[in-house]
Amino acid sequence: MSRPVILTCAVTGSIHTPSMSPYLPITPEQIADQAIEAAEAGAAILHLHARDPATGMPSADPALFEEIVARIRARSDAVLNLSTGGSSRMTLDHRLAAARLIEPEMCSLNMGSMNFGLFPLADRYEWSHDWERGFLEATRSVIFRNSFEDIETILADIGAARGARFELECYDVGHLQTVAFYLRQGLLKPPVFLQFVLGVLGGIDAAPEQLMHMKATADRLLGADYHFSVLAAGRQQMPLGTMGVILGGNVRVGLEDNLAIARGELATSNAEQVRKMARIIEELGYRLATPDEVRARLALKG
Ligand code: KMH
Ligand code: ZN
């Protein structure tokens, strides 16, 4: 029987801004509709952020998350994964407000502080909202803070107290050492689900050698007791995601990580990327994991 591959779709994120693509979902209705379509196309996990419907700016407002989650739950049994990363300009309390209220099965957990450079995008577009350029420029000076104390707060408040399990966002090999540390401490419990994040400016770059390095480091530090997925930002999304599948892992796509469907061509929806990756997975002889298979494999509370 072919191996089930977990396909995650990250629907809107907090990296891209509305002027970059007319297809980036903004309102709760748009985010939920695109998420549901992505699930119907084969995504078992939906990684969710919210945006201010009036401006498109990333938002931590729990009411927006509640609306998004309610709309999706009414029409899909996909695993819902709420971001606790938010954006680098939000406080930790803001980042955790929605997860504290909604208590989802899964949340993201970013495994270290870092530069998160979006500022090179600032001159590449014509902006239709006055916040966009400043938001991107600010990443020249703002640090994406995920201190050990922050990580422990999330493990305690969102993990131990509310039963969520995590998509562990690892942007460089050092973050894998932190995962290994918290496994030894017993604050993280197997089976862990690593997201290898390649291609963020400030993290490891999106190259096949770096994916091999992440995998080899995880093997050395964690042994066999982990699952991994690959998220490559930008145009390496599909090639490195495919490589991740071939290496025995899983894959994340979605407009959070890449706005295109092919070189120079915008994706018209999240589902378009999901369909493309689903085709690749099935052509390679694997099959897509269902949400319930994900729940069983990652020991989610369901
Ligand atoms: N934006 C991605 C590079 C989070 O939401 O916690 C990583 C991410 C972080 O999805
Ligand atoms: Zn995210």
Gyration radius from CA atoms, angstroms:
17 Å
Strand order across the biggest sheet?
2-3-6-7-10-11-12-13
Tell me the major beta sheet.
8 strands, parallel, barrel
Count structural domains.
1
Compute the number of helices: 10
**Model regions low in confidence, pLDDT < 50 over at least 5 residues:** none
Strand content: 15-25%
Distance between the termini: 25 Å
The shape, in one word, is globular
The fold-level CATH name is: TIM Barrel
The CATH superfamily title: Aldolase class I
Helix content percent band:
25-40%
Topology diagram in text:
Blueprint: E1 4-5, E2 7-10, H1 28-40, E3 45-48, E4 50-51, E5 58-59, H2 62-75, E6 79-82, H3 92-102, E7 106-110, E8 114-115, H4 131-137, E9 143-144, H5 148-160, E10 165-170, H6 173-185, E11 192-198, H7 208-222, E12 226-232, H8 237-246, E13 250-253, E14 260-262, E15 265-266, H9 270-283, E16 287-288, H10 291-297
Parallel strand pairs: 1-16, 2-3, 2-13, 3-6, 6-7, 7-10, 10-11, 11-12, 12-13
Antiparallel strand pairs: 4-5, 8-9, 14-15
The structure holds (5S)-5-amino-3-OXO-hexanoic acid (KMH) and zinc ion.
The site of (5S)-5-amino-3-OXO-hexanoic acid has 13 residues, from strand 7.
